[in-house]
Amino acid sequence: MRAPAMLRCAAALAVLLAVAAPAAGFYLPGVAPSDFAKGDPLQVKVNKLTSIKTQLPYTYYSLPFCKPASIVDSAENLGEVLRGDRIENSPYVFQMREPKMCQIVCKATINEKEAKELKEKIEDEYRVNMILDNLPLVVPVTRQDRNTIVYQGGYHVGAKGQYAGSKEEKYFIHNHLSFKVKYHKDDDSELSRIVGFEVHPYSVKHQFEDKWNGVDTRLSTCDPHASKFVINSDNPQEVEAGKEIIFTYDVSFEDSDIKWASRWDTYLLMTDDQIHWFSIVNSLMIVLFLSGMVAMIMLRTLYRDISRYNQLETQEEAQEETGWKLVHGDVFRPPTNSDLLCVYVGTGVQFFGMLLVTMVFAVLGFLSPSNRGGLMTAMLLVWVLMGLLAGYSSSRLYKMFKGSEWKKITLQTAFLFPGIAFVIFFILNALIWGEKSSGAVPFTTMFALVLLWFGISVPLVFVGSYLGFKKPAMEPPVKTNKIPRQIPEQAWYMNPIFTILIGGILPFGAVFIELFFILTSIWLHQFYYIFGFLFLVFVILIITCAEITIVLCYFQLCSEDYMWWWRSYLTSGSSALYLFLYAAFYFFTKLQITKLVSGILYFGYMLLASYAFFVLTGTIGFCACFWFTRLIYSSVKID
Among 25, 33, 526, 96, which Cα is nearest to 259's? Predict the structure, then answer.
């Protein structure tokens, strides 16, 4: 019996994949370009202070920097708030294509507390992030090995060093900023577009001869009238309580051939691109080769089995049958904890839908890095909307298991994974709050997240569950015996723990190279942009999860072990264990995190990511195995 129902578990997966198949990579700008005439004001905005050592962002004005007359917060989207972005105005205001030298911003006298905070931020290698026309500030650095220029996001708050002849380590603040604004001028008009924003920071102990006259004071250490400019940090400004710090800046403008549409190329080429591409392609080729081999073996073996079973004519031959046909009366017996399996399958389908839709939008360029916070906002909103698929999938499976309390299974689907994720997130957020970091999610945002959960996601799960439960139950292709068959003793290599752990290696192998770049973008604050390759890796992940689960499920059934439900889920889901182990390896080999709180944050978030990966890969494996068992048992004649 080839019932159309055999594909229903994977219906959401197949439909969404078909929609995404023709997707091609082209760039759509995140914002519309802005044109500036000569003399137009350019407002520089400041963003959070970041450090790869602590992973705890802070607001710019948490340090004793110069402040404008009134601090105005820019409107941030949900993703920006969750990332810890706090975008505010600054006292740095330029005029388009009008260079300025030795401009005084302010003079500040720091107290003991402020000096201590500055020293801590310099010790932890915090960087200051600024934005001009939606373009982040970068520091050009020349690589000695290749004699090429690479760009680092933001400039360091300061640096540590010693005075000549002294071994005592001192802290110096970067109080002079030499900005360079690159622009592309329109040939037909006097309008220009900003295509680059760079800075060279210096530490200078400024001096002045006459009395202090605010921003009009004439400095002896930086005086354009005397052709004296800041070009080095030979006389640095030390961070010490009670000392005055004069903040200054230069701004120059440079005509550039870079067009506005290509201005983000500088930021996206921060890493070694060739290694990235070669590694991913190499990984994909290996996985595709293995997948092809596995598929070929499976098709040949199955074809032989089905042909042999269908040729059995006598009753004696039928009684002597071996292999997977022998357990046809038990293979669709509901498993233990079937309710929990339904919940996890529904949540996995929700994850699959979220990732696929988000990835398609990212490949099309709608979620480019210029759209700050757009990726996280999109993922949250699509996750909420995919609650419909979660409820539908879990209730369809639940009804097949002869379940009747659909409201109970709906509540579990709506609250199990989101509840666990929210508890972990709340604990980690409390730790960030304790460190007074801007990365702590405000109460209003937390309330908005709860509102999305209870106001949209939960009702959609109920709607999906209601629709799924109304449909007729999926009927198995063979009848289930009333008395369970005894499972014979299994060989050591068919031990559940062994096969589950082996099954997770191939799916993890499909993603681990791309995982390195994803972790680097998250924890080393680099831009991630190759969504086309990520989409390919995702497709390969689906194929490998499905094939390795089907192969191991086939071997299990041939060994007359019919308890495949949970094992199929755990086989591909075990790749999450390798993901977490790799995350631990990455922590100890690539990161320089020393603070306990920062370490807890890292492992807390990676635990959450691994749990989500378990639900996703487990569901893919289960759906593939569910389709496979229905297919093979509907292909043979059962007396």
Answer: 33
User: What amino acid occupies position 496?
Assistant: P
In our burial notation (b when 16+ CB lie closer than 10 A, e otherwise), range 35-56 reads ebeeeeebebbbbbbbbbbbbb
198 φ, ψ (degrees, to nearest 5): -120, 165
Q: What is the per-residue pLDDT across 544-599, written as a single tens digit (0 to 9) for each?
A: 888 888 888 888 888 877 778 899 999 999 999 999 999 999 999 988 888 899 99
pLDDT at 5: 36
Rounded Cα distance, 434 and 439, in Å: 11
- Kind and range of the H or E element at 199? strand 192-202
State the Cα–Cα distance between residues 544 and 291, nearest whole angstrom.
6
* Cα torsion through 331, 334, 340, 343, rounded to 10: 80
Q: Side by side, which strands form the sheet with 100-109?
A: 100-109, 244-255, 176-185, 192-202, 138-143, 148-153
Q: Which residues contact 328 (CB under 8 A, 6 or more apart)?
A: 478, 633, 636, 638
CA-to-CA distance for 633 and 181, rounded, in angstroms?
A: 68
CA dihedral of 568, 539, 531, 457, whole degrees rounded to 10 = -50
- pLDDT score, position 9: 40
Tokens of 22: 């023709």
- Which segments of the chain have a pLDDT < 70? 1-31, 144-146, 269-280, 282-283, 286, 290, 293, 297-298, 302, 305-306, 308-328, 636-639
> CA–CA distance from 169 to each of 110, 239, 241, 244 (Å)?
19, 12, 16, 20
